[in-house]
Design brief:
Oligomer: single chain
Radius of gyration: 18 Å
Structural class: alpha/beta
CATH superfamily: Aldolase class I
Distance between the termini: 31 Å
Largest sheet: 8 strands, parallel, barrel
CATH architecture: Alpha-Beta Barrel
Strand order of the largest sheet: 1-2-3-4-5-6-7-8
Shape: globular
Helix content: 40-55%
Order of helices and strands: HEHEHHEHEHEHHEHEHEHHH
Bound molecules: zinc ion
Mean pLDDT: 95
CATH topology: TIM Barrel
CATH class: Alpha Beta
Low-confidence stretches: none
Number of strands: 8
């Protein structure tokens, strides 16, 4: 079983009104835990990595080979996505490595520049059947939490419609009040704005900054058209929780046993969030 284009997993999600989490991965253990969860739950999996993360694994091709081996071993349907590439070279590298979806994040550039770069990625990716995600508006990081409270960086619905038409991208990441990393206060999602975007953009909509966002808000966002929710901090926290627990009781001289709990925590988190986002559990 080879990897599938991310759009194959997200199109039915948008049509039927559920979402899939997209899990960040950074080492083989995080991949193993996530794939084992997908096998146990019987669901497809979206794994993603930024250049920093696949860089720590030795390269995009290394990540792709490991991810595909696990997917084959467990019989899991998987899409592998470049998260927050910042240059056309990142997109090219991941396309050549066999990723099935790519995102070049030019969300801090002007509309025209973002559109031109996104169109260039579409021209590279689509002939190979690879999905393209882009972001309009800008989802900031916890440290500059102002972006979550100010309206300045939010996605403008009419611009979103024009952006998708002009670029041909498959999935649009929207800025509606979430942020990456840790929240300093409860986020305020602009659900009316999301509703307006969803009425104009019929493809899958993506929410970055899913970690720490209250479920009640995510539930409403999914009902309005969000089909992919990015999860990074929550998964890494689960992993670290497993390591911290091991440190209290286990001998690090036996790494195989020592790290087992971290694998299990990742698996548990992937099962929990996928069941919840896809409507299999509250
Ligand atoms: Zn993001």
């Amino acid at each position: 079983m080879s990897l599938v284009p991310m759009l194959d997993l997200l199109r039915p999600a948008r049509e039927k009104g559920y979402a899939l989490p997209a899990f960040e991965c950074w080492n083989s253990a995080s991949i193993y835990g996530a794939v084992a969860a997908a096998a146990e739950g019987g669901f497809p999996l979206i794994l993603q990595a930024s250049p920093v993360e696949y860089g720590t694994m030795g390269g995009a091709d290394v990540l792709r080979r490991i991810a595909e081996l696990y997917a084959d071993r467990f019989g899991v349907t998987m899409a592998l996505h470049l998260d927050h590439g910042s240059t056309l070279e990142h997109a090219r590298e991941c396309i050549e490595a066999g990723f099935t979806s790519v995102m070049l994040d030019a969300s801090t550039a002007s509309f025209e520049e973002n559109a031109a770069l996104s169109r260039a990625v579409v021209e590279m990716a689509h002939p190979k059947g690879i999905t393209v995600e882009a972001e309009l508006g800008h989802v900031g990081v916890g440290a500059d939490g102002a972006t979550a409270e100010s309206d300045d960086w939010l996605t403008v619905p009419e611009e979103a419609e024009r952006f998708v038409a002009e670029t041909g991208i498959d999935c649009l990441a929207v800025a509606i009040g979430t942020i990456h990393g840790e929240y300093r206060s409860t986020p305020k999602l602009r659900l009316e704005r999301l509703k307006a975007i969803a009425s104009l953009v019929k493809g899958p909509l993506v929410l970055h900054g899913g970690s720490g966002t209250p479920w009640e808000l995510l539930r409403q966002a999914i009902a309005l058209g969000i089909s992919k929710i990015n999860i990074c901090t929550d998964l890494n926290k689960a992993y670290l929780h497993g390591i911290n627990a091991a440190q209290e009781t286990l001998n690090p001289g036996v790494p195989g046993v020592f790290y087992r709990q971290a694998h299990e925590e990742v698996k548990k988190k992937v099962l929990e969030l996928t069941r919840r986002f896809s409507g299999q559990a509250e």
